[in-house]
Amino acid sequence: MGMRIHPSLLSADFANFQRDIESIPSADGLHLDVMDYHFVPNLTFGLPVVEAIRKVTDHHIDMHLMIDDPDRWAPAYAEAGCESVTFHVEACKAPVRLARELRKLGARASMGLKPQTDIAPFEDILPELDMILLMTVEPGFGGQKFLDIMLPKVRRTRELVKKSGLDIWIQVDGGVSESTIDQCIEAGADTFVAGSAVFSADDPDGMIRTLRERAEE
Ligand code: DX5
Ligand code: ZN
């Protein structure tokens, strides 16, 4: 199984995105967190900043939209050339319609779930998805403690994906580090967001390789 490490630029230096992106050539994708002060109690950046980042990197761009009304705002990130767009199902009015629109625009369609949202009600719409993002902290901030009570949901999601026979990535986001990644792998995740673990390391690129080696062991 392919394992991917996606550093989150939420923990990068916001005045030096290009420099920090160039410092992590080993990344399998760049995880960009859009927050709007409504869906989560924090504000980051939006489309103009993402378009600027798109121009300076060829990395797979993994958008994580923690915003209200993704039905309205998410397609523009696919149009901007981002390879993957995650919308939160709690904020989405029509997940199937939005997923189809994202795919039509050439992006991978991904659905995000907050800690209290169960995966079971979405079993029937799995064929519309390329990735499921499972939050392993409450969304809104980097550097929070990993919620190990989310591991059973990671396991249930892996079982559903396996049963479906579909190639859907399972991403965990929040508190992933050297000390928590093993549990996530064991539970069935294959795509790992790491913000503070990567950017607070002395050698961010080395940390990505360390995490991936762990995942591929
Ligand atoms: C939090 C974001 C995460 C965040 C993770 O709501 O979705 O992507 O950057 O940060 P760490 O890895 O520090 O928990
Ligand atoms: Zn995120």
UniProtKB/TrEMBL annotation:
GO terms for molecular function: D-ribulose-phosphate 3-epimerase activity. A divalent metal cation binds at residues 31, 33, 64, 173. Its EC number is 5.1.3.1. It comes from the Bacteria. PROSITE patterns: RIBUL_P_3_EPIMER_1, RIBUL_P_3_EPIMER_2. CDD domains: RPE (cd00429). Keywords: Carbohydrate metabolism, Isomerase, Metal-binding. Pathway: Carbohydrate degradation. Binds 1 divalent metal cation per subunit. It catalyses: D-ribulose 5-phosphate = D-xylulose 5-phosphate. Substrate binds at residues 8, 64, 140-143, 173-175, 195-196. Its cofactor is Co(2+); a divalent metal cation; Zn(2+); Mn(2+). The active site is at residues 33, 173. Belongs to the ribulose-phosphate 3-epimerase family. Catalyzes the reversible epimerization of D-ribulose 5-phosphate to D-xylulose 5-phosphate. This is Ribulose-phosphate 3-epimerase. It comes from Ammonicoccus fulvus.
